[in-house]
């Protein structure tokens, strides 16, 4: 039996983020008080504790800070995907997030690779942000 | 308010290990109890002497309030009790809390334990799935990330920035195994070469199966009391000279750096309290959930310069008799045992034993000052301690 990949879990901190993903937009939080952007979404700014936050759409461009190729899946749902890349992506706006690198050339990923966001269907309209190699080094 | 120094105020006066390996006849609580009994016997104390208990957490048994559960199991009614969760850093942090309680007069004899039946109390798939929960449930787990994967990303970054090699990481596992073969209770009993580590099944590049810690059934325990009371007890005390902790994140996506972690700060706090520095250390027991980890810790704690941790092992300096500070003389979590928080606790047990002396081929000659470092999460929570054969 093939298990399906996990769907996003939506909560009060993240509802607009996951709604954005459904619409093909990568949303991050920016603080109106100090101007810092951050990931993951929170109730207040982790830099200055202001709760005056807004959602901004990221360009979706970033670079690979580090990555691994998973050869043994931690959960059965990911077993058919092995080997696959898990990476930490530094977004152009500053924050770092985790995602898979997708695409035929994903296993060629190197630190410093330029990547661009894409969205992977996780059922019933839900989607998770993912990245593809965009050519070039950041 | 200035910091109250814990230097010379308390000592570890008893240590114990449960049976280790695959121990299907025992529960997780049973492993804790066996280790506790051995630690108490080692100290020459009675159960009624214990007035404080600290323990960690369990992935294999469904108990809430594990500290109270363990007291109940052991028939104890202490005036000081808690279960603490800072991942692998928990044992060292428990020693700090025990010391603080003793110095504050809130307890006199504190039993500290950790242990789980991770090898036989759950299936291998359950074990891996439970550990997956260490990843962020909403922003990491949807990507099929794993704990080896997190540490692999740290290893890859270290390789890029400092030229650390897979061969150097493999030597961590091989050196550690040679030490474990000198320990009568280590989980692993067969020799291991660097070549075998490099040829092992890949898990998360660049880490292979033998770069990863064991999954054991194991429990560990130690007894802490005041330095005054320690002087009257049977076993040679190991005095707490300095201890410090530091916490920077929990999930790797929020780590401030993949190459600089909180061990530098926890170590500096411990050295400052003790009035000692890296040059004073005779033996070090470092957290080694993956082969890259003690490399980074050796750098952060000043056993070698930044970026030279890999060479520290490949050149043989981490080995007993290697001419520098030997590391993980009991075999660490890569070869002695890993069962939740017990993994780091065994480093404390081994440090006490090294300071007492008489370990035969495993003994670090003239060991007077030992350093133990525990880390939890993804190099997230750190606690460093310095223990001495004598007061500082």
CATH class of chain A: Mainly Beta
Strands ordered across the widest β-sheet of chain A: 4-5-6-8-7
**SSE order of chain B, as H and E?**
EHEHEHEHHHHEEEHEHEHHHHEE
Query: Residue ranges of chain A: pLDDT <50 for 5 or more in a row?
Result: none
Biggest interface, chains and residue tallies: A-B, 35 and 36 residues
Helix content of chain B: 25-40%
CATH class of the largest domain in chain B: Alpha Beta
Q: Number of helical segments of chain A?
A: 1
Protein name (chain B): Thiolase family protein
Domain Thiolase C-terminal (chain B): 244-389
Organism (chain B): Paeniroseomonas aquatica
InterPro entries (chain B): Thiolase, Thiolase-like, Thiolase_C_2
How would you characterize this protein structure?
The complex is a heterodimer of chains A (138) and B (392). Chain A is mainly beta. Chain A has one domain: OB fold (Dihydrolipoamide Acetyltransferase, E2P). Chain A is 6% helix and 41% strand. Chain A is built from 1 helix and 8 strands; from the N terminus they run αββββββββ. In chain A, strands 4-5-6-8-7 form a 5-stranded mixed β-barrel. The longest helix of chain A has 8 residues. Chain A starts with 14 loop residues before the first helix and ends with a strand. Chain B is of the alpha/beta class and 392 residues long. Chain B folds into 2 domains: 127 residues, Peroxisomal Thiolase, Chain A, domain 1 (3-Layer(aba) Sandwich); 219 residues, Peroxisomal Thiolase, Chain A, domain 1 (3-Layer(aba) Sandwich). Helix content of chain B is 35%, strand content 18%. Chain B has 13 helices and 11 strands. In chain B, the strands form 2 sheets. Chain B has a 9-stranded mixed β-sheet, with helices on both faces. Chain B has a two-stranded antiparallel sheet with strand order 5-6.
